[in-house]
Amino acid sequence: MRPGPGVHPLRVGGRRGPRTGNGVTLRRARGGAVELVVPARAEYLQLVRAIVGATAGLESSMDPGRVADLRLIVSEAVSNAIKAQASVGVVDPILVRCEPSGDRIVVEVADHGPGFDAGSVPDLPPVETAERLDYESGLGVSLMRRLADEAVVESGPSGTVVRLTLGSRGR
Predict the structure, then answer these.
(1) CB 62 within 8 A of CB 84
(2) Handedness of CA 151, 154, 155, 159 (dihedral sign)
(3) Residue 22: pLDDT band by 50, 70, 90 thresholds?
(4) Using CB atoms within 10 A as the burial measure, which of 4, 53, 113, 158 is most buried?
């Protein structure tokens, strides 16, 4: 992957994983990370959620509620990546890298979209306010910020990498 300036692409390493006829690759990378490469199409979101959930579930200390949070925000990150690439006609696959480590997991999602200014994404108003009804879409980055212990977005004109860190028990 070749994201924009200042964005460090994920290194795909380790043994070559199984590649299916549908363009999906799953492999175990160095250090125990799991890498999933999927076509930039919405029909692969369920597969991404399943693999990420299973990888997080391997850590016996990971609370099931945290695994559910992780599945949700990774799905949002991949959905955003798909939309970003489609907006500029890029059909390259999306890379999802999961690295469990004791009491936490780090998941990175990398795309080849046009990039965006993550700092310009507003926080959402509280759920119980009428103002919140004005937000029917664009909830992904805000959800990532609220549910992850750390959400880092590195973006440039050649792509975006979203790095989500969740601890086993929350903040």
Answers:
(1) no
(2) negative
(3) confident
(4) 113
Which amino acid is it at 96? V
Q: Residue 83 carries which DSSP code?
A: H
For residue 95, which of 147, 142, 25, 153 has the smallest C-alpha distance?
A: 25
55 is written with which tokens?
């990888």
Q: What is the pTM of this model?
A: 0.81
* Residue 62 to residue 143: CA distance in whole angstroms: 19
- Render 31-72 in DSSP notation, one character per residue: GG-EEEEE-SSGGGHHHHHHHHHHHHHTSTTS-HHHHHHHHH
Identify residue 132 by its one-letter amino acid code.
Answer: R
Cβ atoms of residues 162 and 1 within 8 Å: no
- Using CA atoms, how far residue 170 sits from 69, 123, 152, 166, in Å, is 10, 20, 17, 7
- Which element (helix H / strand E) includes 167? strand 159-167
140 confidence band (pLDDT: 50, 70, 90): confident
Tokens (6 digits) for 92:
């390259």
Write a three-state SS string for 94-161: EEEEEEEECCEEEEEEECCCCCCCHHHCCCCCCCCCHHHHHCCCCCHHHHHHHHCCEEEEEEECCEEE
